[in-house]
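Quick one before lunch.
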Amino acid sequence: MHNILVSDPISAEGIAALTNRTDLSVDVQTNLSPADLLGVIGKYDALIVRSQTKVTKEIIEAGSQLKVIGRAGVGVDNIDLDAATEKGIIVVNAPDGNTMSTAEHTFAMLMSLSRHIPQAYKSTVEGNWDRKSFKGVELNRKTLGIVGMGRIGTEVSKRAKAFNMDIISYDPFLTEERAEKIGVRKGSLQDIYKEADYITVHTPLTKETHHLIDLEAFQQMKQGVRLINCARGGIIDEDALVEAIDRGIVAGAAIDVFEQEPPERHPLLKRSQVIATPHLGASTEEAQTYVAKDVSEEILHILNNESFKNAVNMPQVPADVRKALEPYYLLGEKIGEMAIQLIQEPPHKVTLTYAGELTDYETESLTRTILKGLLRYHLGSKVNVVNATYMAKSYDLSYSVEYSSSSLDFTNLISVRIETKNETRTLSGTLLSGYGPRIIKIDDYSIDVAPTDHLLYIQHLDTKGMIGHVGTALGEQDINIATMQVGRKDRGGDAIMMITVDKPLPKQVRDQLEAMEHIRSIKEIQLS
Ligand SMILES: NC(=O)C1=CN([C@@H]2O[C@H](COP(=O)(O)OP(=O)(O)OC[C@H]3O[C@@H](n4cnc5c(N)ncnc54)[C@H](O)[C@@H]3O)[C@@H](O)[C@H]2O)C=CC1
Ligand SMILES: O=C(O)C(=O)COP(=O)(O)O
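Model of the 2-oxo-3-(phosphonooxy)propanoic acid complex:
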């Protein structure tokens, strides 16, 4: 039974996929204080939030069972992503469900701002009939600057075009081709400041976008510019906006989101040029149902160990790539697990090489799986594909990935080279059609071994009788040999045996083998 906590108001219809399940327990508790949440989070496997709940490092650390945090919406700035990644908790969002609603809200704000609708409404219901104070401006033939041309920015641009606006946009990922296709001009932030009559922001709130629009930016803007923020409080510096309004640079601002929510008597709210809504961009029947449905589906997939698509703290793996790589994940994990057991000292560098048909795929997810196998051996189950690269870095283990055209006549090949201060070991494996994962090379020795639970790797001198001696020693202690592979470099030189046995070796057998003449080293390899 998995326990799920929903800590912000969410569409009941949207989460029906979770609440209808008898194998899940879903608690909806939308009035928890941070202290309450801290007290209860320990028993939940999944947490679903909107923008209200602040999922801090402290909450994440107290979430000892947490596997997934679902954001029923887009912005994840209320979730400490680094803390979640460090703990191996997947964070998923619902990136598409509220695009239309937020674009429409932005447009409602743009129009309200131009025609002073909120101010005029207030005046009218107060009994006035003031037709002079609320003279507006047309959108027709005005220039709209859009900062952030993602999903919402693009939908806003379509609506603005229908109003015959000229659109100039800045987004680090906006190419000339895409700009042309959407029918907007690509420009810099400075171009926008110089030319725009209206500026609307649609970026996430990040370190880079925090106070992106500050006093210096306002000083470059056209006198009488109007601003809209339906993205995140903090992208526009609120104090600078107040100053820009007071200096007459900004003629009006429409604000849906605030640096602190609720904004508690911020001077902005005292300016008659400012209209505001309480973070309503995504608040429609439709958007709330879509985002809740999307995030519920993702949570179900994650709790059932199925593939999912909207993780924000690990790479997205398209379904076709995941399907193609699925059988390699097991091979990769086993190779990682074996490689770490071949070395005697802490590793400082790992090089992964993919060859054959693996070079056709984006292999980041496979890399994470190999690192997971490698790190788990010492660090345990706290390592998973979400935090594998983070964990590697935090243990000063650098890793790199190479693609090779040489796959040693196999259709696919994964090699791991693991380096310590004094040793370098390499291990290669392949997925043999019809046979599954095989280890086909250790250092310079070719072998053919299935990565089963108990392996015995013996380095010895190539001399007669070795196989018999080892076989007899194991047999006498009731250790059954399932398979045995031998390999040598040169006649009479270094040789290896790779033996698969049915159970771990008792210490006395190990000691006995180690004491045997011509045996150089014995390594027991346990795979999970
Ligand atoms: N008011 C509300 O209720 C809602 C607010 N939002 C906010 O709107 C934001 C945008 O949402 P989407 O369009 O769905 O996200 P998106 O991810 O589709 O688009 C964001 C765009 O911002 C661009 N960007 C990032 N840094 C930038 C920078 N420094 N300058 C210019 N562009 C930059 C990205 O390249 C991307 O194209 C969200 O991050 C969220 O914070 C989203 C939904 C509802
Ligand atoms: O999706 C987003 O980023 C939003 O800002 C919507 O926030 P909300 O879910 O309405 O609290």
